[in-house]
Amino acid sequence: MSQHRTSQHRTPPGGADRVRASGASGGADRPPALAELPQYAERVLDVAELIPPGRVMTYGDVAEWLGDGGPRQVGRAMALYGSAVPWWRVVRSDGKLLPGHEQRALGHYREEGTPLREAPAAADGHLPRLDMRRARWDGRDGTRPGDGGGSGGAGPGGSEEPHI
Q1: One-letter-per-residue 3-state SS of 43-80
Q2: Euclidean distance between CA atoms 18 and 132, whole angstroms
Q3: Cα–Cα distance between 134 and 156 in angstroms, integer?
Q4: 16-70: per-residue pLDDT in tens?
Q5: Got the DSSP string for 10-52?
Q6: Statement: the pTM of the whole predicted model exceeds 0.85
Q7: CA-closest candidate to residue 76, choices 40, 48, 29, 31
């Protein structure tokens, strides 16, 4: 998935839409730090693109899938570079909607049919949460970045798929 990411999705956490810099032209308006996408961020975004509509992976799930980093590193990559991918599909493990982006994410979840749990009337803001038991994707029906295709299979280093 080394193609350019375009700003086809709404702006997520992290600010203005950005395109993937690997060979992207017209990057003069981007800050120098964003001119080139770090390899780890590229890998995180590749995983985010694999998550099917209506499904989610947690920040920790993505790190486990990659066999590298942790939830905070994944969150940082998504915050800085995630605008060109379905950012709403990489989520907190407790199912809470991303603070500051709840309404946009909720619109995407409803459009995609992502399982939600309605909030109790006493809940602050009455916002639903993701139904993590039903919405969480384990990646078994997708391909790993760099696999060259196929379904499931061994992950980085030849280990089995993480059972998430």
Answers
A1: HHHHHHHHCCCCCEEEHHHHHHHHCCCCHHHHHHHHHH
A2: 29
A3: 26
A4: 344 443 333 333 444 444 457 899 999 999 999 999 999 999 999 999 999 999 9
A5: PP-TTSS-----TT-S-GGGS-GGGSS--HHHHHHHHHHHHSP
A6: no
A7: 40
Give me the chain's average pLDDT, please. 75
**Dihedral sign for Cα atoms in the order 96, 109, 11, 127:** negative
CA distance 37 to 91: 21
Mapped onto helix, strand or coil, the DSSP state of residue 129 is strand
Structure tokens at 87: 């950012």
Fill in the amino acid letter for 95. G
Q: Which two tokens stand for residue 88?
A: 């709403």
Give me the phi and psi of 6, to 5 degrees please.
Answer: -100, 170
